[in-house]
Description:
heterodimer, A: two-stranded antiparallel sheet, 2 strands, disordered C terminus, B: alpha+beta, six-stranded antiparallel sheet, two-stranded antiparallel sheet, 8 strands, about 40% helix, globular
Amino acid sequence: MSTPxxxxxxxxxxxxxxxxxxxxxxICSTLAVTNKVVNTLIMTVGVSLVTAFASYxxxxxxxxxxxxxxxxxxxxxxxxxxxxxxxILNAFAPEVARSLGPYVGLIITNCIVMGRTETFxxxxxxxISWWDxxxxxxxxxLVLGTMSLIREPLAFGTIADIPIxxxxxxxxxxxxxxxxxxxxxxFLVAIIIWVFKTRALKVEAAAKAPKPATAGGTK
Amino acid sequence: MKLNxxxxxxxxxxxxxxxxxxxxPLTLAYVGTKPIADDYWRLQHYVKTxxxxxxxxxxxHPAEAKAAYEKLEKYTIGTFTKDSAGKDIVxxxxxxxxxxxxxxxxxxxxxxxxxVINKALQDTSYTGxxxxxxxxxxxxxxxxxxxxxxxxxxxxxxxxxxxxxxTGDQLTGMRVLFNVETPGLGGRIGETWxxxxxxxxxxxTGMVFNQAGASAExxxxxxxxxxxxxxxxxxxxxxxxxxxxxxxxxxxxxTK
Lengths: 219, 256
């Protein structure tokens, strides 16, 4: 397998191979942290950086890791970066650390991080692995950010804690309690996947369309 | 010599080296950031305790908050002992709430020093399993009483700072010291719009949340969709906080 280019990786991870929409990974945190824009942003930046650096580290030592013990190293590297992130948040952004609760620690078991370090990093050089991890995180951020931009206004009438609806929206109880809770993310992520897939199928069909013509026939 | 990366010896050695290389900087980072994190946690505790007793304080003025907190008279429940380093600590025992409710004399108060409180705060910063601390002070010639009380919430402990006036029939404030309730839902008990409702309420036989909501003398608005967290706050105030504060006033109340 030849090393993919930076552009290919970028395109794959943000679009046609988006970790949330196509691989359906990282759903646990997708449900949990998307009711506030700020929390979502910090969580997704955290995932991007952890995936990037864990991929970099593992790719760097990939020739030294025996295949059958690779998981030990994956967990070791991922845990290292996650704990580091947690310590930094606890010290310098204590309020954010509190509101994210256990989810920062749970980045360790985030399927996206595990997925990239298991598939991409062992087969590619460090820098492109860093880029792959980082763009996977951006793909995750793209979806989660969109969701939080829908959920927070419905739930609290705000975006990033800046009110966009009049205060009566919350005080009179017209806000959507379901948007605060995790189930709303199920509906939302399903709708986003639906829209995305419909478009993706069209793109695919368009790409395939000329082929039968040149082959001189249809199936 | 070519290394056999699949061999046992190499795998074990390499795993060991990697672990050491990664864990060492983490240890340094932990040791480096712990004092900052602890300071913030203690500052939060000082500020919220003072606010619950109706004394103005905020996190932007840490030195003032610390000084005001240190001026409070402080008590706890338990027995004094020494830790392995020979420092004073308090061993906390389960509290017999119903026994104390019937007979306030059963509450045995121990004066406690700030450094012992700070140590206890540090030990409980991740669990919120705070020991009970009582505070006595004077505001405008009137006594004020306060305390930290911990009860069970939905996912973990809920710790509250509750303050009352000289006679104990009116709340001077309430603050949430620790909670791990659902973020955005039960976790909203920590927001000031919720905690501010308790200021100047007259609990009588106990705080309630019902249809009358915050308009009742002893009522507050619960959080929609977070009944368990709201109940946890109510029960911790009624069954723990007010019970112990009444016993405290029975012993330390009256005028000087």
